[in-house]
Amino acid sequence: MYVSTELESGDVQEIFDDDGREKRTGTLLTASAHIITAVIGSGVLSLAWAIAQLGWVAGPAVLFAFSFITYFTSTLLADCYRSPGPVSGERNYTYMDVVRSHLGGVKVTLCGIAQYANLVGVTVGYTITASISMVAVQKSNCFHKNGHEASCSIESYPYMIIFAVIQIILSQIPNFHKLSWLSILAAVMSFAYSSIGLGLSIAKVAGVGHHVKTSLTGVVVGVDVSESEKVWKSFQAIGDIAFAYAYSTVLIEIQDTLRSSPPENKVMKRASLAGVSTTTMFYILCGTIGYAAFGNKAPGNFLTGFGFYEPFWLIDLANICIAIHLIGAYQVFCQPLYGFVEARCSQRWPDSKFINSEHVVQVPCCGAKYNVNLFRLVWRTAYVVVTAVIAMIFPFFNDFLGLIGAASFYPLTVYFPIEMHIAQRKIPKYSFTWVWLKILSWTCLIVSLVAAAGSIKGLATDVKHYKPFSTQQ
Fold first, then answer.
1. Residue 210 CB: number of other CB atoms within 10 A?
2. Which residue, 180, 182, 318, 321, could crosslink 328 as a Cys pair with Cβ 3.0–4.6 Å?
3. This prediction's pTM
C-alpha cells in the first residue's frame, strides 16, 4: 500500500522511483556491506575445522572453488533483477519474482521453498552461534579466574533469549533498505573478530614450543578418526564451506536497495566482486592459519572451542564482535522473509485493518513518530520466538551449518541462476555454452548431496547423545 499525497511532479520524482516505490538510496558501499555481513558470518569460525578434515591440498582448493562459483553465479543473478533486459526491464523485488519472470511454472514454488527454508535455517544457525559466543565470554573469564582445567558449565539458553529479544525489537524496522547502518556496523564487527582470530592463530603458530600435527590430506585414518568418520566429516566440511558462501538467497533483495543510476546490475557485480574476494582472503587466512595453529585437533569453532585462553580480554572482545555481527546478519536474512509473508497476506486480505493499517505512535523523549502495524508486530515476534526455540532444541554448530550450506548451495546459488541465464540469453540447447553450464550445475548437485549426507550423519550422531535444555559443557 502506498499513501497518495499532493506533490509537485518534481517532488514525486525525488521521493519515488520509476516503479512508484520509495526512492532507493543504496550504493556500492552499502551493497558491499550487506554482502560482507551476509557472507562473513558464523561460517568463518568453522573453517579451521573444515581444513583439518580436508587437508592442505583439498581444503584451500575447495574454498577457492566455492568462491569462484559463488561470484560467477551471482553475476548471472544480478543480470536477472530486471526483465526482460538487465538494464531497462521491469524490476523484480524478490528471488521468487526473478524466477517467476524468467522461468515460471512449478519452479517458482520450488524456489520459494528452497529460499525461505534456507532463510529460516540461517536465522536458527545465527541464534545458535551468537549464544555460543556469549557463553564463550563467560567461560573465558571463568577459565582466567579458576584455571584452564576448571569446570565451567554454562547454559546457552539465557543468551538465546537475550538474542531473541534484541531481534524482536530490530525486526520492527519495516523496510530492508533502512538497515544499511546496521549492515555497515555488522561488517566492521566481522572484520574485527576475523582479524582477532587470525592474529591469535598467528601468535599460537609462532609461539615457543608450538607443534601440532597437520597433513596434506587432513585428519589421519586410524589415528584421529576411523575410515567412515573421515568420509562423513569430509563431506560435512564441504557443507560448512558451502554455508560460508551463502548469500545468493538475499542477493536480489540487496540489489533492490540500490539506486537506479548507475545500472543496478553493474553496481551489484562490483559489490559481489568486492564482497566475495574480501571474504575469500579472510577465509583462506583464517582456515589455513587456524589449521596450522590447531592441527588435526582443530575445534569446530576456533573462537569458542578454547584452543585460545589468553589474553582472555581479547577473546572476549572477539566473541562480543561475533554477537554484534550476527545481530545484524540475522536481520539481513530474515527481512526478505518478513517482506514476502506480509506482501502475500496484504494481497490475500486487502481489507483487513489488522494486516494493513498503520498506527502512528509518538516515541517518548525524542518526539519522533513511528508507524506500528499490528500484524507486523505479531508475526515478526512469533517468527523470532520460533527460531529461538528451534535453536534451543538443536544447538549443534557444525552439523547445522553444514546442512544449511548443502541444502541451499545447489538450488539457490547454482541451479536457478544458471537456468535463468540460459532463458534470458536464449542460449541454444546443446551449444558449447549450454553444455558447460549444465556440467557445472550437475557437478554442484553431486557436491551438495554428499555434503548434506555428511551433515545429516553428524546431526544424527549428536542427537543420540543430547538432552534438550540441559547444561552444555
1. 12
2. 182
3. 0.80
